[in-house]
């Protein structure tokens, strides 16, 4: 029988501390439950980069001091740059929409950080992720489940962690239905003014408004020049750099007319069209009617399974982005899909789906259980007849 997993009493637990409310609440709850707790945190980029990395480290130390517990600080700047930031830059320049948090969780947090926690004598590493673990019997396999707090569920980000890693993990917040419950626990002990206001940013190393500012500062925008082109091949004009766009985007589409002796550079908004595709080799961004942004299927590569491997024809629920809704889909042909992270998988949706972005991940759920996920390579658009009948698209 599957049952919620609880680590043995008195186990030594490393808490991955970010300095925020969630990880602080985890450390507090585990200490109150009688576990031997110490903190572990990581430096991911140089001080002053990423809009406040040093501040997060200071807050992690403040939590540890308040709880009077040891804290191990790891310097993972090189690994983070070589793996996560490199992935982020490479994918955007390739015309894809990356999800660096998935890569970070797989390679850094539940890779390098977990290894360090175990090397420092921990039996388990606990994090503030909103997810759950169950075990079959007392000595059976583990499985990863979605958190009870539906809109805060973070199981999407954890699909690539690896089956062999689950036995070393704890997610104490997975059973909470609301973030406010966790906040009340943390603020009740640390005080309401102890934590910085606001939620943590989804991509920790970005400055300013988002990834566009990052590419401008790095001097990478010239490599992303190109044109807006419609579905017939007609050129609408130069754009401002294709890393600004993602499939499904309607806002912020502007044609740039170069400066000439007759006047300054002119920027004209593009109205009534949607980004359908990005062709990085030519720099072209393909625009068209919003109805052409819907797809009936996708193909994803390098699937990683944390649960059982689904079978062709099986009906499951999937997510194509973290904040997206669960979508009903049927598993199509699988190629070389085992636990090695090789091969590909096709997915057919019950209803047309808008704005599938290559580079993101499709994650598979059987009920609340996370089976695994794969990186989206491409989507298959609706046929011409289906596109023409926009009334069928919801």
UniProtKB/TrEMBL annotation:
Pfam families: tRNA_Me_trans, tRNA_Me_trans_C, tRNA_Me_trans_M. It comes from the Bacteria. GO terms for cellular component: cytoplasm. Residues 215-257 form the tRNA-specific 2-thiouridylase MnmA-like central domain. CDD domains: MnmA_TRMU-like. Residues 296-376 form the tRNA-specific 2-thiouridylase MnmA-like C-terminal domain. It catalyses: S-sulfanyl-L-cysteinyl-[protein] + uridine(34) in tRNA + AH2 + ATP = 2-thiouridine(34) in tRNA + L-cysteinyl-[protein] + A + AMP + diphosphate + H(+). ATP binds at residues 16-23, 42, 128. The record marks 129, 360 as: Interaction with tRNA. Its EC number is 2.8.1.13. It is found in: Cytoplasm. Its main location: cytoplasm. One of its GO terms (molecular function) is ATP binding. Keywords: ATP-binding, Cytoplasm, Disulfide bond, Nucleotide-binding, RNA-binding, Transferase, tRNA processing, tRNA-binding. The active site is at residues 104, 204. GO terms for biological process: tRNA wobble position uridine thiolation. InterPro entries: MnmA-like (IPR004506), MnmA-like_C (IPR046885), MnmA-like_central (IPR046884), MnmA-like_central_sf (IPR023382), Rossmann-like_a/b/a_fold (IPR014729). Catalyzes the 2-thiolation of uridine at the wobble position (U34) of tRNA, leading to the formation of s(2)U34. Belongs to the MnmA/TRMU family. This is tRNA-specific 2-thiouridylase MnmA. It comes from Acidaminobacter hydrogenoformans DSM 2784.
